[in-house]
Amino acid sequence: MVQELQNNGINPVIKDESESGRLAGFGASIQGEQEIYINKDEFVTANMVIENIKKDLQL
Fold first, then answer.
1. Distance separating alpha carbons of residues 40 and 18, to the nearest angstrom
2. How far apart are CA 11 and CA 42, in angstroms?
3. How do residues 17-57 score in pLDDT, each as one tens digit?
4. CA–CA separation, 19 vs 31, rounded Å?
5. Nearest residue to 5 via CA among 54, 41, 38, 29
6. Residue 13, SS3?
7. 0.90 cut: is pTM over it?
8. Of 6, 18, 22, 24, whose CB count within 10 A is highest?
């Protein structure tokens, strides 16, 4: 998904608590969960990209 957003001119910020905790020497309760943040000015484009991905995955 991040790559698709970047391909459409959106620069998302990825928050990965489990990776941050691992690097700091702590464990995380939820493994592999990431949050993707975008600028609110990019919401409409990002939403279209995400909807297209969901259609492709048939979610």
1. 25
2. 9
3. 765 566 666 655 556 678 899 999 999 999 999 999 999 99
4. 8
5. 38
6. strand
7. no
8. 18
